[in-house]
User: What shape does this take?
Amino acid sequence: MFLTQLVHGLTLGACYALIALGYSMVYGIIGLINFAHGDIYMLGSFFALYLTSVVKMKIAPAFLIAMGLTSLVGLVIERVAYKPLRRSGRLSPLISAIGVSIFLSTLLNMYMGPQTRGFPDVITELQVKLGEIVITTTQLYIVAMSIALMLLLRHIVMRTRVGQAMRACSWDREVASLMGINVDQIIALTFAIGSALAAAAGVMMGVYFNAWWPLMGFSAGIKAFTAAVLGGIGSIPGAMLGGVVLGLVEILGSAYLQSSYRDAISFTILIIVLLVRPSGLLGRKIEQKV
Amino acid sequence: MALLELKEITMQFGGLTAVDHLDLRLEEGVIFGLIGPNGAGKTTVFNLVTGVYKPTSGSIYFKGERIDGKPPYSITAMGISRTFQNIRIFKSLSALDNVKIGRHCKSSMNLFHSVIPGPFTAREERDIEEKSMEYLRMVGLEHKKDILSKNLPYGEQRRLEIARALACEPKILLLDEPAAGMNRQEKTEIMDLVRRIRDTLGVTVFLVEHDMKVVMGVSETVAVLDYGKKICEGTPSQVQSDERVIEAYLGRRARRTRKAV
Amino acid sequence: MIDAYTIQILVVFGINAIMALGLNLITGVTGQLSLGHAGFMSVGAYTAAIMTLRLHTPYVLNLLAAGVVAGLSGVVLGFPTLRLYGDYLAIATLGFGEIVRVLFLNLEITGGGLGLSAIPSKTNLAVVYACLGITLYVMSKIQKSRVGRALMAIREDEVAAIAMGVNSTSLKVQAFAVGAFFAGISGGLYAHYLTYINPNDFGFMKSIDSLSMVVLGGMGSLPGVLLGAAVLTYAPEKLRFLQNYRMICYGAFLVFMMVFRPNGLLGGTDLRQLVKASFKGLNWGAMAKQGARTREGIGGSKDGIA
Assistant: This one.
């Protein structure tokens, strides 16, 4: 039973990690907490829901198309709501991001209604029993897919020219642009990749819990953000670690706590981390530049 | 007793040693220049003195009292104030309000005073206003008091920052590259201003500067920093003829030019 | 004679304005984004309600206690979190708002999900406007004072403010306390007006409501905040058909304002200026232009953190 819960927590954690990566990458590069990221995740899930239930598509193409569409939306949002504010103080982009978040979630709320919707049967669910542990095929898919995506991201960031440019931008945008890097393009790309990852998480969570609702982005966003901070915001391995830790803590916590307090768990962890070790588990120390 | 004394100060960032066993003594009333090639650790010294950084090892004394480890705002209140390399004025506030904020540690009204009117608060507010105008006048900006500081030209923003720093009535003023980005005329004005600050207000001036002409023209003592170490200290003429300084400054450049050829 | 409906709108406007003025001190003047302001209002509302229901204390005392308890909660939240730079604070306040909500949904003394009802109806137009008047007075005095200037310095450039001797942590906590105090008062008024409160009345959206009022009128500008509160109280009432779109509009509107008018409609103007101008035959155009010219927006310099 305990081990089965552990697998459940790991699955959740893998998804949190995917969302957390988007927060972390964007924060690393433009220093903005992208409040709308949770709603991007919700939107990704929505696209897949629409494609599988209305268009009657299979899950694999729906998954890919949802990622593609969501990264487009991510690009548009960056262009409209964040890019014009690149040179203004730090408060304006943050408020703008909150605006985007509210816009997306209430728009979908209007269009689809507030109720929870289920996905059609997109995966033939089998159970694998390993002694005490029960693992479902969905869980296997999710964990495998998350690992694959994270490895792909790692490859892009560490081994390609674009990735090198991204790392350069996150160290120092001005110097990067002096080195001939098109910073605007790199930032846009960061948003696109982050959004695609969030969409992937959205589709997988939607299928896993068989649920989509317009406000699902809020709590998932907060949890993923907690994961990003826990791991060390700006750090990619940190986001992965933070996601998995948070998924486990949440599942174990809700086993012992009253379930109505469950949503407060991640907030409490978040505030504790911010107070005790704001640089997170793997993050570099935040130094002030004077 | 020296006014400001750094003893064996070392500052490390990760593996990088920005300041390496540095000793400095500033006597009261001097104009002291600190120079050195880019990345020599000059601004780091300022950040250490003003409490932005806590030294990895060593100690800093001001008027005989140890100040390293104290929070920056209380170091300012003790009588050390500064300007920044990349001007940091309060952009959307007027020039006068900028200087008024400089009076912060010379006034004491708290939240309750501001809400409950009384003769004390009125007097203090008047005092803040008058003194602030005095400092604006000193840097020649009294006629621009109501202009939002971000709309001032560059040179005036620099002078405004100096006025703001003076408004704390410091014993010692730290100027971080005050002549950066200025033309020759403005540089002369800044040098005049620095001398006037010392002569009329009796404020000790600690100056970090890139521009040799400015440092040599205005300082009485100059110390040279290279890779965080003090390599030389003396009068401008002593420093200028010192082998190690030429090596650190010109020598390296000369060598580089040679390589390029 | 004013009819009951108009009175209702006026009362709600007053309550909203008091809350927004409190938030304005934190966000508009000090530049610290608070996303949990409804949490303070909630604390105030519940304090007043519990006092009157359990202890039968008089109305004025309830209001005061609402403010004080909310203010204290501001200090409690502020002390640990205000050391945090910028964006983290926003998240911490968001967390605070949610934790308060979840707590009140689960505690017995707050009536859980049912909320508290049968709170005596005491709040009327006169009380609300007396409170609004006091709030305006306090806020305008603070903004003109040494403390107010220091708060603005923190907003503009915290590093430079500290270098000028400003103890930024202490002052930010004070700003939080005062802002939370007035949110608490507004919560107390609200509880005694509606006679029924529920934790979900004070959710994230309520915080965004207030933030929108501050942003619309102009961060840091008192007449701006009043205007923002008036428009955002009145418009949804009159434009009923818009109600469903209200939150969508808020979202789009926040983005729009940040991109095109980060200082709000009346940003960069203050109360005295406005009164003076209105006597002299107001030059609104010039004032609006002044607001627009300060495009750089609020929040000061970006290069505070590496």
